[in-house]
Design a protein that fits this description.
7-stranded mixed beta sheet; 36% helix; 7 strands; single chain; alpha/beta
Protein backbone atom coordinates (compact mmCIF):
# COMPACT_ATOMS: atom_id res chain seq x y z
CA UNK A 1 0.00 0.00 0.00
CA UNK A 2 3.02 2.32 -0.04
CA UNK A 3 2.96 5.14 -2.56
CA UNK A 4 5.06 4.30 -5.64
CA UNK A 5 8.50 5.81 -6.04
CA UNK A 6 9.13 8.33 -8.80
CA UNK A 7 10.07 7.14 -12.27
CA UNK A 8 13.63 8.40 -11.70
CA UNK A 9 14.07 6.41 -8.48
CA UNK A 10 12.46 3.41 -10.14
CA UNK A 11 15.00 3.63 -12.98
CA UNK A 12 17.79 3.30 -10.41
CA UNK A 13 16.06 0.31 -8.83
CA UNK A 14 15.65 -1.39 -12.20
CA UNK A 15 19.29 -0.72 -13.07
CA UNK A 16 20.47 -2.11 -9.73
CA UNK A 17 18.41 -5.29 -10.05
CA UNK A 18 19.47 -5.96 -13.64
CA UNK A 19 23.20 -5.26 -13.34
CA UNK A 20 25.73 -8.10 -13.12
CA UNK A 21 27.55 -6.87 -10.03
CA UNK A 22 30.07 -9.69 -10.11
CA UNK A 23 31.18 -8.45 -13.52
CA UNK A 24 31.05 -4.81 -12.40
CA UNK A 25 33.25 -5.55 -9.38
CA UNK A 26 35.66 -8.10 -10.83
CA UNK A 27 38.63 -5.72 -11.17
CA UNK A 28 37.84 -3.68 -8.09
CA UNK A 29 39.88 -3.62 -4.89
CA UNK A 30 36.77 -2.62 -2.98
CA UNK A 31 34.17 -4.92 -1.46
CA UNK A 32 32.12 -6.80 -4.05
CA UNK A 33 28.84 -5.02 -4.72
CA UNK A 34 25.50 -6.82 -4.58
CA UNK A 35 21.98 -5.85 -5.57
CA UNK A 36 20.80 -6.68 -2.05
CA UNK A 37 22.56 -3.46 -0.95
CA UNK A 38 19.75 -1.54 -2.68
CA UNK A 39 17.48 0.57 -0.47
CA UNK A 40 14.38 -0.46 -2.46
CA UNK A 41 10.90 0.94 -3.02
CA UNK A 42 9.43 0.80 0.48
CA UNK A 43 12.44 2.07 2.37
CA UNK A 44 13.01 4.82 -0.18
CA UNK A 45 9.50 6.07 0.48
CA UNK A 46 10.01 5.89 4.26
CA UNK A 47 13.15 8.00 3.92
CA UNK A 48 11.38 10.49 1.68
CA UNK A 49 8.61 10.86 4.27
CA UNK A 50 11.06 11.18 7.18
CA UNK A 51 12.99 13.92 5.40
CA UNK A 52 9.74 15.69 4.57
CA UNK A 53 8.41 15.37 8.13
CA UNK A 54 11.65 16.68 9.62
CA UNK A 55 11.59 19.78 7.39
CA UNK A 56 15.24 19.08 6.60
CA UNK A 57 17.18 21.16 4.10
CA UNK A 58 20.63 19.57 4.62
CA UNK A 59 20.93 15.79 4.32
CA UNK A 60 24.05 13.64 4.76
CA UNK A 61 24.11 10.09 3.44
CA UNK A 62 26.88 7.68 4.44
CA UNK A 63 26.96 4.96 1.78
CA UNK A 64 25.47 5.82 -1.63
CA UNK A 65 25.71 2.57 -3.68
CA UNK A 66 23.39 3.22 -6.66
CA UNK A 67 21.79 6.35 -5.25
CA UNK A 68 18.24 5.11 -4.63
CA UNK A 69 18.03 6.60 -1.14
CA UNK A 70 19.92 9.77 -2.08
CA UNK A 71 17.50 10.63 -4.88
CA UNK A 72 14.41 9.70 -2.86
CA UNK A 73 15.53 12.04 -0.08
CA UNK A 74 16.43 14.80 -2.55
CA UNK A 75 12.89 14.63 -3.93
CA UNK A 76 11.57 15.66 -0.50
CA UNK A 77 13.84 18.69 -0.14
CA UNK A 78 12.97 22.28 -1.04
CA UNK A 79 14.68 23.67 -4.13
CA UNK A 80 17.60 25.02 -2.10
CA UNK A 81 18.05 21.76 -0.19
CA UNK A 82 21.15 19.58 -0.49
CA UNK A 83 22.10 15.92 -0.15
CA UNK A 84 25.77 15.20 0.47
CA UNK A 85 26.36 11.51 -0.16
CA UNK A 86 29.55 9.65 0.77
CA UNK A 87 30.74 6.73 -1.36
CA UNK A 88 34.05 4.89 -1.15
CA UNK A 89 33.92 3.21 -4.57
CA UNK A 90 34.89 5.69 -7.35
CA UNK A 91 33.57 3.36 -10.07
CA UNK A 92 30.01 4.22 -9.03
CA UNK A 93 30.25 7.99 -9.31
CA UNK A 94 30.01 8.45 -13.08
CA UNK A 95 27.40 5.73 -13.52
CA UNK A 96 25.06 7.04 -10.83
CA UNK A 97 25.60 10.71 -11.65
CA UNK A 98 23.93 10.03 -15.01
CA UNK A 99 20.79 8.84 -13.22
CA UNK A 100 20.81 11.88 -10.92
CA UNK A 101 21.19 14.23 -13.88
CA UNK A 102 18.02 12.87 -15.48
CA UNK A 103 15.99 13.95 -12.44
CA UNK A 104 14.93 17.55 -11.78
CA UNK A 105 16.10 16.95 -8.18
CA UNK A 106 19.51 15.56 -9.12
CA UNK A 107 21.26 18.92 -8.89
CA UNK A 108 20.65 18.88 -5.13
CA UNK A 109 22.99 15.88 -4.74
CA UNK A 110 26.74 16.17 -4.22
CA UNK A 111 28.80 12.95 -4.33
CA UNK A 112 31.90 12.75 -2.12
CA UNK A 113 34.26 9.90 -3.04
CA UNK A 114 36.57 8.45 -0.38
CA UNK A 115 36.40 6.96 3.12
CA UNK A 116 33.36 8.44 4.82
CA UNK A 117 35.17 9.30 8.05
CA UNK A 118 37.67 11.39 6.06
CA UNK A 119 34.82 13.16 4.28
CA UNK A 120 33.06 13.77 7.60
CA UNK A 121 36.24 15.27 9.06
CA UNK A 122 36.45 17.65 6.09
CA UNK A 123 32.79 18.60 6.48
CA UNK A 124 33.42 19.28 10.18
CA UNK A 125 36.39 21.51 9.34
CA UNK A 126 34.18 23.39 6.88
CA UNK A 127 31.62 23.98 9.64
CA UNK A 128 28.89 21.96 7.95
CA UNK A 129 25.88 20.59 9.83
CA UNK A 130 23.03 18.35 8.73
CA UNK A 131 19.36 18.10 9.66
CA UNK A 132 18.97 14.47 8.59
CA UNK A 133 21.63 11.76 8.31
CA UNK A 134 21.16 8.32 6.75
CA UNK A 135 23.78 5.67 7.55
CA UNK A 136 23.93 2.63 5.27
CA UNK A 137 27.59 1.73 4.76
CA UNK A 138 30.17 -0.69 6.20
CA UNK A 139 28.62 -2.06 9.38
CA UNK A 140 31.91 -2.31 11.28
CA UNK A 141 32.19 1.50 11.18
CA UNK A 142 28.62 2.31 12.24
CA UNK A 143 29.76 3.18 15.76
CA UNK A 144 32.49 5.48 14.44
CA UNK A 145 30.02 7.27 12.16
CA UNK A 146 27.58 7.75 15.04
CA UNK A 147 30.23 9.11 17.39
CA UNK A 148 31.66 11.39 14.71
CA UNK A 149 28.24 12.92 14.02
CA UNK A 150 27.70 13.79 17.67
CA UNK A 151 31.25 14.49 18.84
CA UNK A 152 32.07 16.76 15.90
CA UNK A 153 28.65 18.42 15.98
CA UNK A 154 27.82 17.44 12.40
CA UNK A 155 24.24 16.73 13.49
CA UNK A 156 22.39 20.03 13.59
CA UNK A 157 20.17 21.11 16.46
CA UNK A 158 16.89 19.22 16.09
CA UNK A 159 18.52 16.77 13.68
CA UNK A 160 17.73 13.08 13.15
CA UNK A 161 19.98 10.11 12.40
CA UNK A 162 18.47 7.15 10.55
CA UNK A 163 20.48 3.91 10.50
CA UNK A 164 19.76 1.00 8.16
CA UNK A 165 20.12 -2.76 8.79
CA UNK A 166 19.81 -2.54 12.56
CA UNK A 167 18.02 -5.90 12.73
CA UNK A 168 20.70 -7.50 10.49
CA UNK A 169 18.69 -10.51 9.40
CA UNK A 170 17.58 -11.20 12.96
CA UNK A 171 21.06 -11.27 14.50
CA UNK A 172 20.22 -8.19 16.57
CA UNK A 173 17.73 -10.31 18.56
CA UNK A 174 20.25 -13.01 19.44
CA UNK A 175 22.91 -13.39 22.11
CA UNK A 176 26.44 -13.56 20.71
CA UNK A 177 26.81 -17.34 20.64
CA UNK A 178 23.53 -17.76 18.72
CA UNK A 179 24.29 -15.33 15.89
CA UNK A 180 24.86 -16.45 12.32
CA UNK A 181 28.65 -16.41 12.01
CA UNK A 182 28.38 -16.93 8.23
CA UNK A 183 27.06 -13.36 7.87
CA UNK A 184 29.50 -10.51 7.37
CA UNK A 185 29.68 -8.36 10.51
CA UNK A 186 27.38 -10.71 12.46
CA UNK A 187 28.35 -8.97 15.71
CA UNK A 188 28.88 -5.42 14.43
CA UNK A 189 25.20 -4.44 14.34
CA UNK A 190 24.24 -5.79 17.80
CA UNK A 191 27.32 -4.03 19.21
CA UNK A 192 26.34 -0.79 17.48
CA UNK A 193 22.78 -1.04 18.80
CA UNK A 194 24.15 -1.45 22.32
CA UNK A 195 26.53 1.48 21.84
CA UNK A 196 23.61 3.74 20.99
CA UNK A 197 21.48 2.31 23.81
CA UNK A 198 24.26 3.13 26.29
CA UNK A 199 24.66 6.72 25.07
CA UNK A 200 22.86 9.05 27.48
CA UNK A 201 22.76 11.85 24.92
CA UNK A 202 20.14 10.27 22.68
CA UNK A 203 16.74 8.63 22.32
CA UNK A 204 16.42 5.80 19.82
CA UNK A 205 13.88 3.39 18.41
CA UNK A 206 14.10 0.63 15.78
CA UNK A 207 11.34 0.48 13.18
CA UNK A 208 10.77 -3.00 11.67
CA UNK A 209 11.02 -1.72 8.10
CA UNK A 210 12.86 -4.22 5.89
CA UNK A 211 16.07 -5.03 7.81
CA UNK A 212 15.42 -2.49 10.57
CA UNK A 213 15.66 1.32 10.61
CA UNK A 214 16.91 2.92 13.81
CA UNK A 215 15.91 6.53 14.42
CA UNK A 216 18.13 8.53 16.77
CA UNK A 217 17.69 12.04 18.14
CA UNK A 218 19.35 14.00 20.91
CA UNK A 219 17.37 13.92 24.15
CA UNK A 220 17.27 17.70 24.25
CA UNK A 221 15.29 17.60 20.99
CA UNK A 222 12.84 14.98 22.23
CA UNK A 223 12.15 15.86 25.86
CA UNK A 224 9.16 18.16 26.07
CA UNK A 225 8.86 21.19 28.31
CA UNK A 226 6.62 21.44 31.36
CA UNK A 227 4.81 24.38 32.86
CA UNK A 228 6.40 25.72 36.05
Amino acid sequence: MASPVSSHVDAIIQFTNSTDWNEFSKNSTFRRLEKMMLTGHEEAQVLRLLVSMSKATRVLEIGMFTGCAALAMAEALPCQGTVTTCEINPALEGVIRKFFDKSPHGNKISIKIGPALDTMQTLHEEGKQFDFVFIDADKSNYGNYFKCLLDKNLLAEGGTICVDNTLWNGNAYLVREERDETMVDAHAIPEFNQLVADDDRVYRVILPVRDGLMLIRRKIDVDGGVKP
